[in-house]
Amino acid sequence: MSETVLMNPFPEALVDVRVVGKKISWYPETVSTNTLALESGVDGAVFVAEYQTAGRGRHGRRWHSAPGLGLYFSVALWGPLRGVTFGAALAARDALSSGCAVAIRWPNDLCCGQRKIGGILVEQREGLLALGIGINVNQHMDDFPSCLRHRAGSLRMATGVVWDRRETFCQLLMHLDAVVQRLRTGEFDAIHAEWTDACNMIGKRVRRGATTGKVTAVDMEGALLLQTATGMKRVGCGDVTISDIE
Ligand code: BTN
Fold first, then answer.
1. 35 lines ligand 1 (CB under 6 A)
2. Listed residue (96, 72, 119, 100) closest to 158, CA to CA
3. Pocket of ligand 1 contains residue 28 by CB under 6 Å
């Protein structure tokens, strides 16, 4: 029986970047690219895989990594880097914008219409951050497990065309490099304001469990500040599902 040998479709480095993508390591398969990043210790090193056997999502969820169809990668960054999740969402949105209108849905999902096409997970170990990004690029509906089919999407599903993963990956890294530079030169406030604007939650009525309120602000950690009948309530992104937005 012949064995299929996968070829690396990605560059080994980007030129004209300051940090992100100066070194890119490709894996046909790994447990999670975030784990590789957390073990690396090299600022700006990027780890990209065709397939993750245990890709991690927020809140302990799994990230489904259909082999060869998406982009699953992590950037190792020495912290602290306040606002990196906000900046990463803006960078991803902008990197994809020439081919697809991508929105940032609170707390930090990348969406085309109502369907989630990407997510961001930042993990930390002893001052080193793993900025992990998963983008569904060329999946069809059937490539997702049935439990995700009502809400997952891909760039291909949204646009009807096959996307060039290498070009998309390079665009993502270049935008991430620029936003990391902005954060490291003290632009947290501006990035937080851009992200708040992009989430478009201010003024919306939100219900969570028994609590209903109007969003008056999004704080520096990304939590919603709700004006409710019984006073102000803070809804953090760590433990919440927005059940309805009126
Ligand atoms: C989310 O739940 O929305 C975050 C998903 C993040 C998935 C990416 S894929 C690359 C990196 N490695 C992981 O194990 N997770 C992130």
1. no
2. 100
3. no
Contact 234, 215 (CB under 8 A): no
Q: Which ligand 1 atom sits nearest the alpha carbon of residue 31?
A: 14
Mean pLDDT taken over the chain: 94
Q: Where are the alpha helices (DSSP H) in the chain?
A: 33-40, 84-96, 155-159, 165-184, 188-199
Strand partners, 77: 129
Do both 120 and 152 map to the same domain? yes
Looking at the structure, tell me whether residues 54 and 151 fall in a common domain: yes
What is the CATH classification number for the domain harbouring 49? 3.30.930.10
Enclosing domain of residue 237: 201-245
Ligand 1 centre to CA of 235 (Å) is 23
**Per-residue pLDDT reduced to its tens digit, 110-151:** 999 999 999 999 999 999 999 999 999 999 999 999 999 999
Kindly state whether residue 149 falls inside one of the protein's structural domains: yes
- Higher-pLDDT residue of 243, 219: 219
Please check whether residues 151 and 240 belong to one and the same domain: no
* Residue nearest ligand 1's atom 15 by CA: 56
Using the mean position of ligand 1's atoms as its centre, give its distance from the Cα of residue 62 in Å.
8
Residue 63: inside a domain, yes or no?
A: yes
User: How far away, in angstroms, is 221 Cα from ligand 1 center?
Assistant: 19
Same domain, 224 and 180: no
pTM (whole model) above 0.85 = yes
Confidence label for 243 from pLDDT (cuts 50, 70 and 90): low
Q: Is 74 in the pocket of ligand 1 (CB under 6 A)?
A: yes
**3-state secondary structure at position 246:** coil
